[in-house]
Amino acid sequence: MLELEFNQGGRSGLSSLLIKKLARLISRELAIKKSLKISAALVNAPAMKKLNTLYRHRPKVTDVLAFPFGQPGHQVDEAVIGEVIICYEQAAKQAKAAGHAVRREIVFLLIHGILHLFDFDHMKPKEAAEMFTLQERILNKFFQTL
Description:
Layout (H helix, E strand, L loop, with lengths): L1 E6 L8 H14 L6 E8 L1 H12 L7 E5 L11 E8 H11 L3 H16 L7 H20 L2
Parallel strand pairs: 1-2, 2-4
Antiparallel strand pairs: 3-4
């Protein structure tokens, strides 16, 4: 079962109950049987730009970054598989452009980052199709049950 710790999650409009619900849904969709932990956090645009510059050598704000277990500077714990960082301001801009709530965009980005931690990628068309299909299925199931 996936355990999701979301720092500043309240700012996202997600209660701890909804975060647990999302973690259970992702656990079912990915058939996760053992106890795994993911840390997630909302950051501001300057912090995200700094992280993106440092880790990806791209000096610009991005919406989400996923750091898998074992990255330099991360605590070594077999149960902790990684960390997802979401830029609140970028999520808000994207939500406005798409015409939906910021909460929906943050859930979308959280799912996206978590899937990256489980080795899903979208660099090749076949990989992208698989990842985006799963991402949309999880997102739709989550919001259908609210």
